[in-house]
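Observation: inputs received (chain + AHM).
Thought: call the complex predictor directly.
Action: predict_structure
Action Input:
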Amino acid sequence: MNSIITLDEFIIKRQKDFPYASGELTGLLRDIGIAAKIVNREVNKAGLVNILGIADQQNASGDTVQKLDIYANEKFISCLKNSGECAGISSEENEDFVSFPNVESKSSKYIVVFDPLDGSSNIDVNVSVGTIFGIYRRISDPNGPCTLEDFLQKGTEQVAAGYVLYGTSTLLVYTTGRGVNGFTLDPSIGEFCLSHRDIQIPKRGNYYAVNQGYYLKFDVEIRRLIDHYSDKNLGLRYIGSMVADIHRILFQGGIFLYPNTRKYPYGKLRLSYELNPLSFIVEQAGGKAMTCQLERIMEVELKELHQRNTIAIGSPDMVDEMKQFVERYSAVAMM
Ligand code: AHM
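Observation:
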């Protein structure tokens, strides 16, 4: 029989690789695992109780908020607050960051950014949704509350990032900058167990993911790229849950695009909560992530908490190909 390695065991084992680690990051990752299990329980029984559907409010980015978004947001905040291993959080569902006032939290080295339930328009129809998180070392004085500058660090400063996919099975995938590993929740024992060791993204894939309904609203270089995929007989797979799309691409290869449109001139997705953590994971798996204006995602300057940016992310050769199309056709458009 293969021996099972749980998420907790794996995290503790990895801590030994960092000789001066204090255990704080280890504890933080474990707390995120606990919050994910609690949210997973509610996602799974969502159809049974009156928790599905749209709540009567909008989030900080102006999107309609689903009830389960609020639940997931509250659970993640309370798990992180009670852990004492996190000085504060910034969530896609909150207008501003939250600084935790209790003594242990205040002196913690880390802050966490997260999207508690990405792809929430899919909740009501039983399609996979996910949680995305990024962890940073705070740069403010550890003797006081955390500050805005802690949350406006570039993606390159992340010390860990991950996502949880609430799908046919529930998976937690994370990186601390030393490769990417995936854990599947075994409901019979209530533990995330190591199921995907050292994930490597294929150099190319046979699918692309983009909301092709916006085709006519994309810039010419992106339209030419999509035409090229069609010429090459690539398949289109778009779930509308970024975590689920990225998860497929990590294993099967491919590219995910969310370019600028007339409605979203800077792209729709949020740099802090979605793009930076997923880019860290994809780069650690050997992939690439850049804006459709060709800046590496993790080097984009974050000027405000809810900043949106465009993205092309996935297999390295396919992101390079996107770059070539942008260089070639945006130059033609300027002539
Ligand atoms: P959300 O945070 O409101 O759920 O929005 C994020 C989601 C992503 O998961 C997904 O890739 C994208 O929005 C889909 O947007 P669109 O419907 O414009 O294609």
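Thought: report the result.
Final Answer: The pocket of AHM is lined by residues 63, 115, 118-121, 211, 240-242, 268 (CB under 6 Å). The CA atoms of residues 171 and 184 lie 4 Å apart.
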